[in-house]
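Human: I hope this is not a bother. Would you mind checking the protein record under this note? Thank you for your patience.
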Amino acid sequence: MDYTRYYKFSSVYVIEFLKDGNPKTGRELFESCILPLGQIKENLYTNLAQPKSKSEFFDVLSKIEDDCEANSRRPILHLEAHGNDDGIANDNIIESADQIITWSELKPFLCHLNEISGLNLLVIMAACDGFNLTKVVQLTDRAPVWGIIGPQVNVDAGH
């Protein structure tokens, strides 16, 4: 059986959720690798968003959902942020709990995006402890993602 027809990605969305002063690793990845690939690969849509706040981050996710639904896209979602056991943030110095996007807050958006994409959502967590997203993925839940790639440890920019 040819499984490639089921797991074919048609878009790459990069969300760089980092405050000014942080290395712009999402933009660098997008400009050096993803955008050029999108320019030569037919039917590959690419997009970079750089939200500055938690509310902007969720606005970006909503726009991605709308775009994927309207255009039948099957996305790879690449998130560049700071992370810890609880979730992600735009700075590694977290001064209050309302700055953190918890894994539980992220999950409903991912579930909806995964459903829109035909259960084909790949999430790449370029954040310290990004693999902790798996903490909210339960076998009895609706599948929030097809796959997750992320570190289980702290990492520096560029790794």
The beta strands are 11-16, 45-49, 75-80, 82-83, 87-89, 101-102, 122-126, 147-149.
